[in-house]
Amino acid sequence: MAIDGIQRQFLTALLLAALCVFAGCGAPDLTGLTEEEFPRPSSEVQVAGSRAGSQLISGWYAVERNSWRWTAGRFAVLLRPPIGSAAKGANLTLHFTVPEVVISRLHSITLFASIQGTKLAPETYQKAGPALYTRDVPASLLSGNTVRVDFELNRVMVPGKGDSRELGVIADRVGLEAK
User: Of the candidates 173, 87, 91, 88, which has an alpha carbon nearest to the alpha carbon of residue 135?
Assistant: First the structure.
């Protein structure tokens, strides 16, 4: 009995899902993919997006209001370097909001970032509202298929009043932009 294209796609997806479950990583989202198409990390992650979960490594809380996530004091993301960045470098950007409650309690916060263990310059925020952290990333840090970006805040809101989470900032998107 010959296997047609649809049967092959189904069997391939089933096999991949089973292998992933046995490896302990949960079932991947293979919706709409064929055997030739596998999910690839993106250069920019909308943190509330349906495919963001595979790139948000640690320190991210659940999506709120279908558009953003709180971060913990330490959070990390996996990004694909943009085309040409291994030669020209790229710009790292984190679009986020510093909530009024954070500024009223902590007065300021400092955001630190590192890529592949190399520290980038920190920035201090003293006002509530939309914020942007952007840094030049040297080409030497962008030679692989993916890079890990680690963020850290010097202070966070401690758990309390029924919320057990350590709260940092409200993130919208993070990415590497080609120069």
Answer: 91
Token output for 14: 């089933």
pTM: 0.77
pLDDT digits (tens, 9 = 90+) for 96-138: 999 999 999 999 999 999 998 999 999 999 999 999 999 999 9
Domains of the chain: 1-39 (no CATH), 40-178 (2.60.120.260)
- Each residue's pLDDT tens digit, 68-83: 999 999 999 999 999 9
Q: Which of 45, 58, 63 is nearest to 152 (CA)?
A: 58
> What is the distance between the alpha carbons of residues 136 and 134, in angstroms, rounded to a whole number?
7
Torsion of CA 24, 25, 31, 37, to 10 degrees: -110
Beta carbons of 178 and 82 less than 8 angstroms apart: yes
